Amino acid sequence: MKVYISADMEGITGLVDAEDVQPPGRDYERGRVMMTEDVNAAIRGAYAAGATAVLVNDAHGPMRNLLPDLLDPRAVLIKGRPKPMGMIEGLTSSYDAVLCVGFHARAGILGVLSHSFMGHEIEDIWLDDQVTGEIGLFEATAASYGVPLVLLTGDDTACAEATAWNGAIHTVPVKFAKDRFAAELVPVAEARAAISAGAAEALRSLPTVAAGPDPRTLSVRWQSASVASHLTAIPGVTRRDDRTVTVTDDMLQLYRLFNLFLRVATAVTSNPPYC
After folding, report:
1. Annotated binding site
2. pTM score > 0.90 for this model?
3. What's residue 275's pLDDT?
């Protein structure tokens, strides 16, 4: 059984603030250790369930967060950016399951460090008119590969978003949101044990994948009308209004295009996330 792990940082055990997850934050280096150990917990669970190979993609921010010397040596790590498929780089139809570790709720939800990809810059995302964030786009893209997303860890709002999107996803809440930068924390040892147990349970009974129809339509509302204006230079991208762009294509191409959107938006704006 081949298992793919995408590791974000905002939903990692114990982390609640930009200082925890962004370099050069005062607690960022400690956050890297916490992130690596949450991923190790998922790797342990995967192997307990019979995994024969595990690939981990560092999917947060600079994508250079996980510490290779502390990572379980049974796993292979993808580190750095840019990557054409971003948070889902390296996933192919040869994998049997996806685990999402350390994920967060979408923009507009009162969850810990909630946003959609770019801090305040993205206000809303719709896939076929269904509002979504990183979790929904990730699950839909994995399903297009024929691979089920079976586990998600993060705060309680991220877990609720995942199960609302697809009720077959197992979730492990490692903290409970009190506000955007505050949470009631599950004790570290308890959280890591739950991640391992959750991963093993999710992998022992894999669900049937239900991929959405192709083509599909992706719409993104930006804070800046300038971003939307620049994106219309990409063939197939149209503006629904001054700040909202829309494009229709197969799901895999949509996800790749969306990663191009992010690079254009980064070049056009200078808004840091979370502020």
Report:
1. 8, 10, 60, 104, 134
2. yes
3. 36
